[in-house]
Amino acid sequence: MKSKFAVALLATSALAAVTLASGPAEAKAHRHSADPRDAEIQELRAQVKALTARLDADEAAQQTAAQAAQAAQTQAANAQAAATAAQNQATAALGQSQAAQVQAASAEKAVPPLEKALKSGWFANTTISGKAFLNVSNIHQTSTDLLGRTTENVQNGTQTELKRFYIGVDHKFNDVFSANITTDFRYNANGTSKDVLVYVKKAYLQAKLNNAFAVRVGAADLPWVPFVEGIYGYRFVENTLIDRTKFGTSSDWGVHVLGSFGPNNLVSYQVSAINGAGYKTLSRSSNTVDLEGRVSVNPVKPITIAVGGYSGKLGKSNDTVNVNHRATRWDALAAYTNKRIRAGVEYFAATNWNNITTAPLPNPAPFTPNDRSHGWSAFGSFAFTPKISLFGRYDWVKPTRVVLAATQGAPRDRYFNVGLNYKPINPIDLALVYKHERTDHGFLSSSNGTIGGLDHGSYDEVGLFGQLVF
Fold first, then answer.
1. Higher local confidence (pLDDT), 29 or 441
2. How far apart are CA 144 and CA 456, in angstroms?
3. Is the CB of residue 437 less than 8 Å from the CB of residue 412?
4. Domain limits at 58?
5. Is the pTM of this model over 0.85?
6. CA–CA separation, 457 vs 444, rounded Å?
7. Domain ends where: 60, 90, 120?
8. What burial class does residue 265 get, using C-beta atoms within 10 Å of its C-beta: 0-12 exposed, 13-18 middle, 19+ buried?
């Protein structure tokens, strides 16, 4: 504005000076002719006008630029303020995130995530397992006396049974110590009871120093029966030889030492010091300890050779009972097993197993004669495919040498089964089975009930037998 005013003032002054200087002459020229300085004045005026327009344009441009600069400055200030606000928000969000992380860490420390808890909690080293034996079958059992009269048994007919249901819990405390508890549910087996019986079959604490030496204290598997069950493979169809005929059992309370050693576990062993009455009895009813042991050898992988023995008073020795004998039993097994074939023979010989408390005879002086029992079992199976196999077994047992006058002979028991097994998936077995058992000249208490008669008794069963393992 000042430069424009100065230029205009200077131009006006110059124009005025020119006009004053030419006043008289101009008047005189009007009288005579036109003055040539008039053109110069007009040109000067035009220049002044152009200069003024030019200055106006420059001033307008300056004002526009100033306004644009001020607008840009305002916009920049607003952007700076927005950036500052955004930075403040980010700082606040970061603070909240850090606080949330701290809170989450505290919560995780207090209550760890489920996946982490499953891997690190006490139950991370705990496993639960189960095994069930079930069947739908028809039983026909008879007993015949010396006069040929036949009596039908109460359990005859068709029935669905869940004979056994085991639930096991294993817990590993560390590389040395572990524990197991296994329950045994017995459901109305063979029609002999109408209630549900629940036992603790296994309950022990184990210390395993290495593969060759482990100690179990409590109720645990005995050396012989579970060992043979693993080789036989069809426990869900029938108990093994000495378990079926009640010359042994599968578990008892006591101290058990076991292990295996050598290349490919060439030799395995177990020795148990037990109460002697079996796992179903836990009481201080005996004042002695029974011993059972086994040693097995696998000279080559498919072949197993084992021997075992038992000595004791079967939990019957105490101050109120006269125990006249010690029961003993010798066991032997030879078997060949691979993925397709199972074949084996088991033998036992027992002394005084059923007459520990038998009253003495008076002739010629009070004495209790020794009683002897023995028997054998041959079993085999062949797998046509991984899912289908054919199996069979035959047992022969002389349970006692005592001859009752009425029976005219010592008892003999013969048993066999044959079946076709289908395994739809690994945890399930389904088998069509036929069983037959006959006891002559007396009675035998077996896993199928009391079989026999004064002359003989027979037992037939046909049905679908199954096993579920998880």
1. 441
2. 5
3. no
4. 2-90
5. no
6. 10
7. 90
8. middle
